[in-house]
Amino acid sequence: MNICVFLSAADLDERYTRPAREFAELIGRGGHTLVWGGSESGLMKVVADGVQESGGKLVGVSVDFLAAKARTNADEMVIARDLAERKALLLEKSDAVVIMVGGTGTLDEATEILELKKHGKHTKPVVLLNTAGFYDGLRQQFQRMEDEGFLPLPLTDLVFFAKDGVGALAYLEESSGLL
């Protein structure tokens, strides 16, 4: 399975890097491919290293203004013209999406993927990996959106909130018929 992971390229502390590394190792040991932003920095590097060292493959999609930070030993690396093309390529190359901790770029990617799913533009499973409760506030906001009629489908049909990488990967494999 090609698993797109949206996440930060920032250098983060152990409470985020350790669970990210563990999830990456699950992806690699499971024989899956990581589809990610292609960066050789921060949490993106941690996850790419973990997948590659555990036997998984890497498909990166960088963007022209970040190409100098792209990983050089990925199995495949594509350089997109802009962020919009990058998001489209990441979705196109994946079978499932996992949203890990990140800043405004990750939030932008997450909301676009969920909006496209809401409108039926894709049916891929989407997981919000809620490491250290990072997305508790967003989960609460989504629940309010559902409760007050802003979502045309149940929140559970839109996104799965996972506490850890084991739960995230199990959900993806079950959703894809791999279990």
Describe it.
The chain is an alpha/beta fold and about 180 residues long. Helix content is about 45%, strand content about 20%. The chain has seven helices and seven strands; from the N terminus they run βαβαββαβαβααβα. Strands 4-3-2-1-5-6-7 form a seven-stranded parallel beta sheet, with helices on both faces. β2, α2 and β3 form a beta-alpha-beta unit. It is globular. The protein starts with a strand and ends with a helix.
Please supply descriptive tags for the structure shown above:
179 residues; seven-stranded parallel beta sheet; alpha/beta; 7 helices
Helix content: 40-55%
The main pleated sheet reads as: 7 strands, parallel
Strand content: 15-25%
How far is the N terminus from the C terminus? 12 Å
- Output the structural class: alpha/beta
Mean pLDDT, rounded to whole units? Answer: 95
Radius of gyration: 15 Å
Topology as a string of helices (H) and strands (E): EHEHEEHEHEHHEH
Low-confidence stretches: none
Major beta sheet, strand line-up: 4-3-2-1-5-6-7
Using the alpha-carbon principal axes, give the shape.
globular
Strand tally is 7
Number of helices: 7
Summarize the structure.
The chain is α/β, with parallel strands linked by helices and 179 residues long. 45% of the residues lie in helices and 18% in strands. A seven-stranded parallel beta sheet has the order 4-3-2-1-5-6-7, with helices on both faces.
Outline the fold blueprint.
Blueprint: E1 2-6, H1 14-29, E2 33-36, H2 42-53, E3 57-63, E4 76-80, H3 83-92, E5 96-99, H4 104-118, E6 126-129, H5 136-147, H6 155-158, E7 160-162, H7 165-175
Parallel strand pairs: 1-2, 1-5, 2-3, 3-4, 5-6, 6-7
Helix pairs in contact: 1-2, 1-7
